[in-house]
Design goal:
With 441 residues, this protein is α/β, with parallel strands linked by helices. The protein has 3 domains: 5-193, Alpha-Beta Complex (Spore Coat Polysaccharide Biosynthesis Protein SpsA, Chain A), CATH 3.90.550; 196-370, Serine Threonine Protein Phosphatase 5, Tetratricopeptide repeat (Alpha Horseshoe), CATH 1.25.40.10; 371-441. It has helices at 18-23, 43-49, 63-73, 90-99, 170-176, 195-215, 220-233, 236-249, 255-267, 271-279, 288-301, 305-318, 324-335, 339-352, 357-370, 373-386, 394-405, 409-422, 427-435, and strands spanning 5-11, 31-36, 53-56, 78-81, 86-88, 107-116, 122-123, 126-127, 129-130, 143-154, 180-189.
Length: 441
């Protein structure tokens, strides 16, 4: 008899994403368990419509507790764990089904591919990489980071997650001596491509990380989580302390610990300490550009602008797809009042990275700051061609205003309508729509 596979999920208000996730698993799983932690949208109905077993669980500020409830509700021989903003492709499904027949392994490490709208994002071991392509719906996302995670495992006694945030099964596997192996299957994670949604969760995640760090100050995993969430929310004292604590517990650390620790110390004005921790960061050809940007930031903070500019140009030469260097140099040029040079530099970055959202945002921002509506509108129009749902409605407003100013009301009406389709609650777009003559809409 073939092994049975259960899908275990925890969700809350995931109506926009859950259906696509479950659809990507059709024909693979024998049982779907969805633990709902308090949804107020159609999440539960969507799960039930696809045959899921839905259970309610009161949220207790602990992701591991919710995950463990999902495991308790599973009845399969094996368990696969996904989140609502993740998808599986056909190749991954085939690899998972084949792996269930391997008796020598208790768990499998799957590749988590985080799709990103910019090459300026920092992963655990360095910067982002070009999107290898091939997965539908990610064509506009030119970058990604990847890491391995234990997402497929036998259901057995002693199996339990730990961690209030970024929960993991690794301690249970270590304690039990269970064997793991890598599996050639990719889980496609789309959540990082929604920066506004990610930002909305950051304060709650930071508070959970703080609580756990107080409870378990001697756990390097906990300190890493605190460092990551503190950096995302800009709480630099907590970030610097988490970096110090991590390195005291485990001197051989991921690159992100050194970079975020140095950034936090720099923001706090502790420049000598920032330089010392940055000097300890691992150096390799593929991580050198992002280390150079961190070095340039420190040089700027010391008032060494010439050295910083030289360092940023070195970073661009080392890897023109590491867009953080373009962003930082463009910001410096704008601060110096040379908006035209900033625009030229950002355009050069976009020639190399035409689908980098942060570069487009920076370019439109420079143009808008110049006060020239026609240039800003042209840049915003180009940005919308690359990211039709970018700009949070501002790009649509710029283009529409320029068209109205030029007497092209029908074209402005089309742009406003597109903007409202993407951002229906944007008040400025709604007010702008009222300015378009009724016959032109």
């Amino acid at each position: 008899m073939a092994p049975r596979l259960s899908l275990a999920m925890i969700v809350r208000n995931e109506a926009e994403r859950l259906g696509a996730c479950l659809d990507s698993l059709q024909g693979l799983v024998d049982e779907t368990v969805v633990v709902d932690t308090g949804s107020t949208d159609a999440t539960v109905a969507i799960a039930e419509a696809r045959g899921a077993k839905v259970c309610s669980f009161a949220w207790v500020d602990d992701f591991a507790a919710a995950r463990n409830e999902s495991l308790r509700q599973c009845s399969g021989d094996w368990v696969l764990v996904l989140d609502a903003d993740e998808r599986l492709d056909a190749e991954g499904a085939a690899a998972i089904r084949a792996a269930l027949g391997r008796p020598e392994v208790e768990g499998f490490l799957l590749t988590i591919r985080n799709y990103l709208p910019s090459g300026a994002y920092l992963g655990i071991h360095g910067g982002s990489s070009p999107n290898p392509g091939g997965f539908p719906g990610t064509e506009h996302l030119a970058f990604c980071t990847e890491f391995s995670a234990l997402r497929l495992f036998r259901r057995q006694e002693g199996l339990a997650y730990t961690g209030r945030i970024h929960e993991t099964l690794d301690p249970a596997f270590d304690t039990q001596g269970w064997r793991t192996a890598p599996l050639a299957a990719v889980i496609h994670h789309l959540g990082k491509a929604e920066p506004d949604r990610e930002q909305a969760k950051q304060q709650a995640y930071f508070q959970l990380a703080q609580t756990e760090a107080r409870e378990q100050p001697g756990d390097p995993r906990v300190q890493y989580n605190l460092l990551q969430e503190a950096a995302m929310t800009g709480v630099w004292e907590a970030c610097a302390e988490a970096a110090r604590a991590f390195l005291q517990l485990r001197p051989r650390a991921p690159l992100k610990v050194f970079l975020e620790g140095a950034r936090a110390l720099r923001e706090l004005g502790r420049l000598d300490e920032a330089e010392a921790i940055l000097a300890r960061a691992p150096d390799a050809p593929d991580t050198r550009p992002i280390r150079l940007v961190a070095q340039a930031e420190l040089q700027f903070a010391r008032g060494q602008a010439d050295r910083a500019l030289s360092t940023l140009l070195e970073a661009i030469a080392a890897d023109p797809h590491s867009t953080l260097s373009f962003l930082r140099l463009g910001r410096w040029l704008q601060e110096q009042g040379d908006s035209e040079a900033a625009r030229e530099l950002l355009r050069a970055g976009l020639d190399q990275n035409p689908r980098d959202l942060l570069l487009w945002e920076a370019l439109v921002g420079v143009s808008a700051a110049e006060g020239n509506l026609s240039i800003a509108a042209r840049d915003a129009w180009d940005a919308l061609a690359a990211f039709p749902q970018g700009g949070r409605g501002l790009w649509h407003q710029m283009v529409a205003l320029a068209l109205l100013q030029a007497g092209s009301a029908p074209e402005a009406a089309v742009v406003v309508a597109r903007g409202l389709a993407a951002f229906p609650e944007e008040p400025e777009l709604r007010r702008l729509a009222a300015r378009v003559p009724p016959g032109d809409r």
